[in-house]
Each structure stands twice: as C-alpha cells, then as structure tokens.
From TrEMBL:
It comes from Candidatus Chryseopegocella kryptomonas. Belongs to the asparaginase 1 family. GO terms for biological process: amino acid metabolic process. It comes from the Bacteria. This is asparaginase.
C-alpha cells in the first residue's frame, strides 16, 4: 500500500478539529473518524505544522512545510497539505520554487466548509487528494472540487462556491469524475529528478494595483523605502497611464535606475501580459519594466521574493531569471 504524509497547516478544513491538543496522533484519528475511506486508499501518517487561518501564513511556514517534506521524502510516496484557501496559491508557488527536482506529488487542498459539517466539501477534497497523491505526479499541485491544478498557476476565484480555484492559463493535471483522468501530457517535463532545495525568500517586495487617477506621488514615495522589487498589477495587456501628470512611466524609469525590479502583471484573469501591444505598455517596457507574461500576480510576487533572495543585488541576473520557468509557472515564448 502507498504511504501518504498528511501535513496540516489550518484553514476552514480543520476547524472542527480544533478541540483537543491537535497532536499528530489525535489529528489523524479525527480525520479517520470523519473520512474512514482514506485508510482504504493509503497508509497515512500526519504532521502538524500549524493550525492557523492562512492569512497568517508567511515565509517561515513555507520553509517549515518544505522541511517536513524533505525530512520524510524517502519514506512516503506523496504528500497532502491541508491549508486555508485564502493564501493557498502563494504557498503552492513557494513550494514549487523550493522543491526543485521534485519527483513525487505534493498536493495542497482545503475546503469551503469545515470537515465536520454536513454538505462539506472537505471529505471529497481530502479523499481525492489522497488518491491522487498515490499517482506519480512530479509537481506541487492544488486539488479542489474535482480538479487537480499546477499550484503555481492557480487563482482563488470564489469565496462562496465549491469551485474556489481556477487555473486560467494552464490546463488541469487531472480531473475526477466517475473515473480519475490523469493528463500526463500536462505534467512538468523536468530535466532532473534529484531533489535540490532552495530555502530563501526576501519580503522586500511590494505589490501595487493601479486604478484610474492613481496618484503618481504615492508611488514615487515608495521609492524612498527599502523595496527591491515591485509587482504592478496594471490594466489589460499590461498598460500603465502614460500621459502628462498621470503618467507612471517616470516611476518605472526611476525605480529601474535605482536598481529596483518593476514587473508588470495584469488585472485580467485570462490571457497574458504583452507590453508591446499598446504604447502604454511599450513605454513601460522601454523604461525598464519586466512583463509577468502569463504568470499570475500571486506567483510573480513569490517568484520575485525567491529570485531576490537567491541572487541578491545581481539585478541583471534576476531580470534574466524572471522570464525562465522554475516550475512551469510561466510559458516559454
Ligand atoms: N480564511 C480561511 C483560510 O484561508 C479560509 C479557508 O480556509 O478557506 O485559512
């Protein structure tokens, strides 16, 4: 029988499990009380990293989860992480960058209703995640409502419905219906399957969503802070205001001259940033901006955090690496 390690971090999923001490042994017992089926799928052990709302998850939790995976890597066939939905995509992106050379499935899941409640989606999400974690999927994924996505391509799109996640620019890796359909052709084509762990992130990054009449002075004042990289969530294909006093191009120019990275993502959900499509994007490109292309804003932020920590002040290298996929988060041209 395959062996799966269940790593708990918190979120709505485990709310009913809060009573008691939440030691790994009692946690796994409670899970099996509610979802006895998982025992038929695999031999399961558990590890508690935290029991918090995922709004409170930070770099230290990403690293702790990665440590648990690395320490148990040879003893398990797959890993299922129960996590709040709010920041699940950030954690998935971070793990996908940390765990280079991953050859086993790491599946994050959660739920919109707690496991103990009727009509809960937690049971379905857990059973299917455990089942999929027995397949040889060499990726960090998110499973939600019958679909398995590449984690660093997902977005939380629904607060109420059970279809909480979508992967707007990359097809699912598997779907669960009457049968399990695994789309191997969509898996990451890794060059090497030897786990190589990088565990540094910088939080000297900042993300700004622009809007009509956004005050240029406010953005300019951010340049006085110790921010090394910006993700600007711009309009459409990556457009910024570029005329007269509302132009943000001087901001991009000045930031770039100061050796700061400015990466442009989009407020649109589907499609990719193309800074050559309109003059508003082209001016930003000429002033030194990078394009997030088809990366989600969430993943672009985490990638910038990762690259800044990895390459320090080598801005030229960071700019080059930003366009290269680390774990399938961006499409190659
Ligand atoms: N606020 C919760 C969290 O992200 C929501 C959830 O679990 O779905 O932890």
């Amino acid at each position: 029988m395959k062996r799966i390690l269940l790593i708990h971090t918190g979120g709505t999923f485990g709310m009913a499990l809060k009573d008691g001490t939440l030691a790994p042994s009692s946690f796994i017992q409670r899970i099996i009380e509610f979802v006895p089926e998982v025992k038929q799928i695999a031999e399961i052990e558990s590890h508690i990293v935290a029991n918090i709302d995922s709004s409170n998850i930070g770099i230290e939790h990403w690293l702790k989860i990665a440590d648990v995976i690395v320490q148990n890597y040879d003893d398990f066939d797959g890993f299922v992480i129960t996590h709040g939905t709010d920041t699940m995509t950030y954690t998935a992106s971070a793990l996908s960058f940390i765990l280079d050379g991953l050859s086993k499935p790491v599946i994050l899941t959660g739920s919109q209703r707690p496991l103990s409640e009727i009509r809960t989606d937690a049971r379905n999400n857990l059973i299917n995640s455990v089942e999929l974690a027995t397949y040889p999927i060499p990726e960090v994924c998110i499973f939600f409502n019958n679909k398995l996505f590449r984690g660093n391509r997902t977005k939380k799109i629904d607060i109420w419905g059970f279809d909480a996640f979508d992967s707007p620019n990359y097809p699912p890796l598997a779907e669960v219906g009457v049968e399990v359909k695994v789309y191997e052709k969509n898996f990451l084509k890794r060059k090497n399957f030897k786990l190589n762990v990088s565990k540094n992130f910088s939080n000297e990054v900042f993300c700004v969503k622009i809007f009509p009449s956004v005050k240029v002075d406010f953005l300019m004042s951010l340049l006085e802070l110790d921010i090394k990289g910006f993700v600007i969530e711009a309009f459409g294909s990556g457009n910024l205001p570029n005329i007269e006093e509302r132009s943000l191009i001087p901001f991009v120019q000045k930031a770039s001259e100061m050796g700061k990275i400015v990466a442009i993502s989009t407020q649109a959900v589907y499609g990719k940033v193309d800074l050559t499509l309109y003059q508003c994007g082209k001016d930003a490109l000429d002033a030194g901006a990078l394009s997030c292309k088809d990366m989600t804003t969430e993943t672009a932020i985490v990638k910038l955090m990762f690259l800044l920590a990895k390459y320090g002040d080598n801005v030229a290298l960071i700019r080059e690496e930003f366009y290269k996929p680390i774990a399938g988060e961006i499409s190659e041209d």
